[in-house]
Design brief:
Blueprint lengths: L1 H12 L10 H20 L5 E10 L5 E12 L3 E3 L1 H11 L2 H21 L6 E5 L2 H5 L3 H12 L6 E6 H4 L3 H14 L2 E7 L6 H6 L4 E4 L11 H16 L3 E4 L5 H10 L3 E2 L10 H9 L20
Parallel strand pairs: 2-4, 4-5, 5-6, 6-7, 7-8, 8-9
Antiparallel strand pairs: 1-2, 1-9, 2-3
Helix pairs in contact: 1-2, 4-6
The structure holds ligand C2E and magnesium ion (2 copies).
The site of one magnesium ion has 4 residues, from strand 6.
Length: about 300
């Protein structure tokens, strides 16, 4: 019966109305998944979740102006799992709600610590999953955390993906308006990969677009990507939105984006996601502060 169940799950996951015969790998996958699910439900209380931070850099001054928090799971048997490996599972099982609260809370504590240490204009961005964003109590949860941590709301940025923003747009609008009223910064993640209605983009109370890294790849050589990034830079400019380019891996990309007027850059060229401890060190070293106008003449922040 268990094997039949596995075959049924496989058939369903590939779309309905199809026939699948049981194969032993299905059982293994399902069993592993079940184990992973079980372990994930204890991950937060077992202190196995960890936030890593990837800097966002101002292209003009080279200064670190913020960080994106990315959640890793230090799995007791499997080592450090990247978010891509377990966030989808957390979403599928609904565990993303408690885990998401843990993440928000931890990120707020960290940015509070940095701000208290004198890094005043520093913001931390947290990725919000579709489930969280649509949850009825989400705005209250955020407000409560901010209050408990005693954090200025402008220190917190929420990233929601373009796809989430563009489904049920009227509801999105309502939700974003409530979040904005709290004083938070809101950014649209993976911009360009979904189907944005420009009419809504104009109306949404958002601050930042993050152009997806698939458009940054092979810049400036790739003709299509060059055209797309230039167009998005112009769009952001005329809509009065800030623009972050993600996935910047080399100086050619950074140089091109900076020259075209993209204000903020993020990617392995500057730094991989790093621990809060390492991040504090690079902040304390004041990297980017006293060095010339453009980052282009500088060495990268952190060696890979
Ligand atoms: P995202 O928000 O678009 O995050 C950026 C992803 O690009 C991260 O992958 C980051 O490590 C990776 N990246 C950064 N710079 C570069 C680069 O120069 N080159 C390349 N090739 N990749 C780069 P990661 O850490 O695997 O995260 C994947 C996705 O998982 C994130 O995409 C985000 O949607 C989700 N995620 C991560 N942390 C959380 C979280 O705390 N909560 C929720 N709900 N989702 C999260
Ligand atoms: Mg993100
Ligand atoms: Mg992204």
């Amino acid at each position: 019966m268990r094997n039949a169940e596995n075959a049924l799950q496989a058939a369903k996951s590939q779309g309905r109305n199809r026939l699948r015969l049981y194969a032993p790998t299905m059982g293994v996958n399902a069993f592993e998944k079940l184990q992973l699910k079980m372990a994930l439900s204890y991950a937060a209380e077992n202190d196995e979740l960890e936030l890593l931070f990837q800097p966002k850099v101002a292209s003009e001054s080279g200064e670190i102006i913020g960080a994106e928090a990315l959640t890793y799971w230090n799995h007791p048997g499997q080592g450090r799992l990247s978010p891509g490996k377990f966030i989808p599972l957390a979403e599928e099982t609904g565990l993303i709600l408690p885990i998401g609260n843990w993440i928000l809370n931890a990120a707020c504590h960290q940015v509070k610590a940095w701000r208290s240490a004198g890094f005043r204009d520093f913001t931390v961005a947290v990725n919000i999953s579709p489930h969280q964003f649509r949850e009825r109590t989400f705005v209250d949860t955020v407000a409560t955390i901010l209050e408990r941590v005693n954090l200025e709301p402008e220190a917190l940025e929420l990233e929601i993906t373009e796809t989430v923003a563009m489904t049920e747009v009227e509801k999105t609008m309502e939700r974003l308006t409530e979040l904005r009223a709290l004083g938070l910064t809101i950014s649209i993640d993976d911009f360009g990969t979904g189907y944005s209605s420009l009419a809504y983009l104009k109306r949404f109370p958002i601050h930042i677009l993050k152009i997806d890294r698939s458009f940054v790849r092979n810049l400036p050589g790739d003709k299509e990507n060059r055209a797309i990034t230039k167009a998005v830079i112009a769009l952001a400019h005329y809509l009065d939105l800030h623009l972050v380019a993600e996935g910047v891996e080399n100086i050619e990309q950074a140089d091109f984006l900076a020259r075209e007027g993209c204000q903020y850059l993020q990617g392995y060229y500057f730094s991989m996601p790093i621990s809060s401890r390492d991040f504090t060190q690079i902040l304390s070293a004041g990297i980017g502060k006293e060095q010339g106008k453009s980052f282009v003449s500088k060495p990268r922040i952190i060696q890979r």
